[in-house]
Amino acid sequence: MTDLLLNPGTYDPTDLDPEARRLLRATIEWFEARGKTELKRVRHEREWYGDFLEFMASEKAFATFLTPGSQGGRWDTARICAFGEVLAFYGLGYWYAWQVTILGLGPVWQSDNEQARSRAAQILRDGGVFAFGLSEKAHGADIYTTDMVLTSDGKKGFRANGSKYYIGNGNVAGMVSVFGRIADVEGRHTGEDYVFFAVDSQHPSYELVKNVVSSQMYVSEFSLHDYPVAAADVLHTGPAAFDAALNTVNIGKFNLGFASIGICEHAFYEAITHADNRVLYGMRVTDFPHVRQGLTDAYARLIAMKLFGERAIDYVRSASPDDRRYLLFNPVMKMKVTTEGERVIDALWDVVAAKGFEKDTYFEQAAMDIRALPKLEGTVHVNMALVLKFLPSYLLNPTTLPEVPRRRDTADDAFLFHQGPTRGLGKVRFADWRTSYDVFADVPNVAVFREQAEGLVELVTNAGPDADQAKDLDMLLALGELFTLVVYGQLILEQVLLTGMDTDLTDLVDRIFDVLVRDFSRYAVDLHGKASSTKAQQLWALEHVRKPAAGTGRSDRVWHQVRDLASAYEMRP
After folding, report:
1. Backbone angles phi, psi at 172, to 5 degrees
2. Closest by Cα among 426, 442, 411 to 506
3. Three-state SS at 196
4. What residues form DSSP beta bridges with 161?
5. Backbone phi, then psi, for 272, in 5-degree steps?
6. Is the pLDDT of residue 23 over 80?
7. How far is CA 303 from CA 201, 308, 335, 511, 557, in A?
């Protein structure tokens, strides 16, 4: 079962195309050749990763993975996610340079400005990186109140003035996609004055103010001072600029979950190997029952993250104007998988204890980096609020839809750059979520969780939020956690079916749902304790606390899968 985790020693994603496999292997070898000692040195000295970007340029990796079909390449979500997982496995900083390049390209590839698109494609071929100029110091990502303003230059262009904050790659980006507004346009605050335009970070009118973090990463603050913006630099105007901002975030935030997966995988190998080689009080640490419990839970959560993500890729790649289910699975990937990553690291940290602080371990950086991902591309709360928009359609009004196949073909995911307006989420339809649960009805903990999920339908139907509670975000977030678990479980089970069932995987499914049953119970108790919860809601919450099914022997068999991972991988010194 070790093939469920990324192991650099054996990694060869045969479901991807030969060039992707070559680039992934070459990247792994580049990191392994440097070794953990050097990896940790440059991190602690906050050394800019210019050598990494030079290697990426020499391999044309970013150009290969991030050039869409319209520019002669192929935008393939599956291999983009695989590459992001590999980069995060070695360090969040490397992944971050890649991630913000994806974000910076989003408005460009969505634009009708062919001159700007061609320029971006050439920058990629030359090994350049990109940046996404959306956030501001005073407003964060509140794009309704942007202070980046373009004024007419009296000819056919503009002058841009204003500042942006938290902008990755802002020190070297060959192109920065900047969001702002055009002065003196009717429709202020209605979207008619919005604009996306491209700037060069090396231009004299571009002031690089500072790096706002103490890190290898350069998360910049920059200012534009009468920066000349020609027609050839304008990417979007009006409501299309607003849609481009949100659709770019839709594209980019999906990758956050795979970064969490990569971090957790490397940390897991280090933790299980350390624990299994350590003897305390005459016992191997992995023989302590609480350690087994913690490691097994961490493993189950990590595999669940991976199963959900792999299946969600299929929905993203199959998206179309008639099938927008990805708009639910996308924020779940961002919000749920990244917070699960924190829980995995916390469980592992309880096992490795003080070892997790040591500067020469990977774990030391994992414990810090894993915290960042839930907070990027919209907070957990923002994404949960988005998820809740789909609850009525998903839980209560399923319909018959074509089955989404496994998508590891060589098609270009062109729809991602033609997503269109961002409204109408309540109209998105879903197939019956019960179908995948039915297939696993004989797996004890799937059956227990299914009872809880059916109870959630009962709650929403008979004791759902009233008018006042519908305005209480704290209350809604608790409901959202329960709903998200049902969605999460659906795609996990779908991916297991696509992976192919065997005894080990069936045991693991039971263990994953052992965790989900406990999580559902915990969120039900949280709902019970909300200040605004009604008597009916409190009664429902207590009635749906469940104990996982036990006594099948499956937990012990999963533990042996976990134990087998000890010493399975260790980064070269």
Report:
1. -135, -5
2. 442
3. strand
4. 149
5. -65, -35
6. yes
7. 40, 9, 16, 10, 15
Does the pLDDT value for residue 1 go beyond 50?
no
Angle at 437 between CA 435 and CA 440, to 5 degrees: 120
Q: Using alpha carbons, select from 268, 445, 273 the residue that is nearest to residue 343.
A: 268
Buried b (16+ CB within 10 A) or exposed e, 126-151: ebbbbbbbbbbeeeebebeebebbbe
Task: Give the integer Cα–Cα distance in Å for 100 and 139.
Answer: 19
Show the CA angle centred on residue 127, arms to residues 161 and 15, nearest 5°: 120
Bridge partners, 207 (sequence order): 223
Mean pLDDT of the chain: 95
CA separation for the pair 124, 118 (Å, rounded): 10
Contacts of 176 (CB under 8 A, 6+ apart): 104, 130, 131, 132, 133, 167, 170, 198, 199, 200, 201, 206, 222
The Cα–Cα gap between 486 and 501 comes to: 21
User: Residue 61 has which token pair?
Assistant: 């990796």
The DSSP secondary-structure symbol of 238 reads T
Question: Quick check: helix, strand or coil at residue 229?
Answer: strand
DSSP characters over 404-465 = PPP--SS---GGGG----S--GGG-----THHHHHHTTTSHHHHHHHHHHHHHHHHHHHH--
CA distances from 48 to 53, 207, 214, 379 (A): 10, 19, 11, 27
pLDDT at 284 > cutoff 80: yes
What pLDDT, on the 0 to 100 scale, is given for residue 189? Answer: 62
For residue 188, the model assigns a pLDDT of 63
